[in-house]
Amino acid sequence: LFVYGFYDATASQKRLLSATLRGRETIVFVPIEVSSAYAFARPFVDFLHAIGGRDASAPPPARSAPADLRVIAAPGEAREVRELARAVLDAASDGMALPEIGVLVHAPAVYARAIAQTFAAVGLPAGGPLGGLRIDLPAAQALRLLLQARLGGYRRSDVAAVLCSTRLRLEPILGHERARTANPPRWDLATRQLGIAGGSAEFLARAARGPEPDLLAVLRRLFEVLDAVPLEASPGSLASAMAGALTTLTDYGDDAAPVLDSIGRLAALEGLVSALTLADAASFVESALASETDVASSDADSGTGVYVGDLLHSRGLGFRAAIVP
């Protein structure tokens, strides 16, 4: 028998253990070391001794020679990707074969496009599951928040999520300097202090009396654009309105392209149904985003390129060099 996770036991549990373990070869794992920090487990160990147990130390784990570890500071994903490409080239120049190098990212959807573009620019072939699901892209999450605010009638929590969790395009609304110093979390706090529950009319009326003039300007633009997204229309009209809201209100640059492509799938329904509700259209686009990947690797099966994959799903793979951005 194996007993794991105990460091104490009630009287009933001790009677059960005594009866169960009698006459059986058993290993009991107890968190105990010669230290006052483990005194809490000593009474349980004494009980095991009393019923015939004896101490046995686990063999020390096999340890390989420590690998060289380098930590590189790089601000932002784009700079990180340039630095990891430099690290790959350095390892290759030292004689390491490209398939022996693993680039293991914690968020493939965030890094996939930048890695593909940067590696192509420097001539590095890449293999492995380079892409990620489109639904995990920041632009997809921004679209979800925008549509949630529209469909929910502009509840305060939904609007606050848009203000604080999306890369809003503030400069056309506030100008360069005010956009640079904008503080969305402070806007969120202001909406709480103003007692706003929801609805565009209440937001605008109370924000007009509040201390944050920039908040009022942003809300006006936000509601103007989202109100133009119809609650029911033809698939093509809904696709155009959803894409317009995303590109007008947020600034994800090229990273928005896969999301806009998935929104475009909605237009293919134009000849099948005359009208859709916005809720149904949002659900359709969400399903498309969840089923489509971005930036598939052209060298995934060749075994000749650098392995690029998800950190979690790459456990157990052996590399002479592992790079984790």
Task: Write out key terms for the chains shown.
two-stranded parallel ribbon; extended; alpha/beta; 4-stranded parallel β-sheet; 325 residues; single chain; 10 strands; 14 helices
Largest beta sheet: strand ordering? 4-9-3-10
Ends apart, CA distance between termini: 43 Å
**Total of DSSP H or I helical runs spanning 4+ residues:** 14
Q: Characterize the overall form.
A: extended
Would you count the extended β strands for me? 10
Indicate the proportion of strand residues.
Answer: 5-15%
Average of pLDDT: 85
Provide an overview of this structure.
With 325 residues, the chain is of the alpha/beta class. The protein is 48% helix and 9% strand. The protein has 14 helices and ten strands. It has helices at 11-21, 42-50, 77-93, 108-121, 138-151, 156-165, 171-174, 176-180, 184-193, 200-208, 213-227, 235-249, 257-264, 278-291, and strands at 2-4, 27-29, 101-105, 126-127, 132-133, 232-233, 276-277, 293-294, 306-310, 321-323. The strands form four sheets. Strands 4-9-3-10 form a four-stranded parallel sheet, covered by helices on one side. A two-stranded parallel ribbon has the order 1-2. The chain has a two-stranded antiparallel ribbon with strand order 5-8. Helix 1 (11-21) links the parallel strand 1 and strand 2. The longest helix has 17 residues, at 77-93. The protein is extended, with a radius of gyration of 29 Å. 30% of the residues are buried. Residues 296-301 have low confidence and may be disordered.
